[in-house]
Automatic annotation (TrEMBL):
Zn(2+) binds at C74, C77, C90, C93. The keyword Zinc applies. The keyword Nucleotidyltransferase does not apply. Involved in the maturation of [NiFe] hydrogenases. Required for nickel insertion into the metal center of the hydrogenase. It holds the Pfam family HypA. This is Hydrogenase maturation factor HypA.
Length: 118
C-alpha cells in the first residue's frame, strides 16, 4: 500500500515546516490528490492516523484532501475534456492520443501550524 509512503513523506515535510517556522506543532495539512494516483482514501486516512501519532509535533494534525478529477487534451483535435480514471479516449473525435492535464497531482497545498508561545 503506497499510501504509507505518501503519508510518511507528507509528515516529514510537515515536521520540517514546523521546526523551520519555530512553531509549536502542526494543526492541519491540506493535500491535493488526483484520481489517477489511485490513492485509496481509507488507506490514506488509516496510515495518517497511525503515523501522525509517532511525533507530538503532528499527533493532532488533521488531514484534509482535495480530490482532483482527471482532465486531458486530445493531440489529434485539440479538444480538452474531463474523464474518469479509465476512459481516456477523446469524446470529440475518438482518438486515444491524449495528454493528461490534471489527475496526477499529489501536492501539499498548505500546512497550518500553531505558533510557539515564546
Ligand atoms: Zn479529439
Amino acid at each position: 500500500m503506497h499510501e504509507l509512503g505518501i503519508v510518511d513523506g507528507v509528515l516529514s515535510t510537515v515536521r520540517s515546516t514546523v521546526s523551520h517556522e519555530g512553531a509549536k506543532r502542526a494543526l492541519g495539512v491540506t493535500l491535493r490528490i488526483g484520481d489517477m494516483t489511485e490513492v485509496v482514501r481509507e488507506s490514506l486516512d488509516f496510515a495518517w492516523d497511525v503515523l501522525r501519532e509517532e511525533d507530538p509535533l503532528t499527533a493532532d494534525c488533521v488531514l484534509t484532501v482535495e480530490e482532483v478529477h482527471p482532465a486531458s487534451v486530445c493531440r489529434a483535435c485539440g479538444a480538452s475534456f474531463d474523464h474518469d480514471t479509465r476512459h481516456l479516449r477523446c469524446p470529440a473525435c475518438g482518438s486515444g492520443d491524449t495528454r493528461l492535464l490534471h489527475g496526477r497531482e499529489l501536492d501539499i497545498v498548505s500546512v497550518e501550524i500553531e505558533d510557539s508561545d515564546e
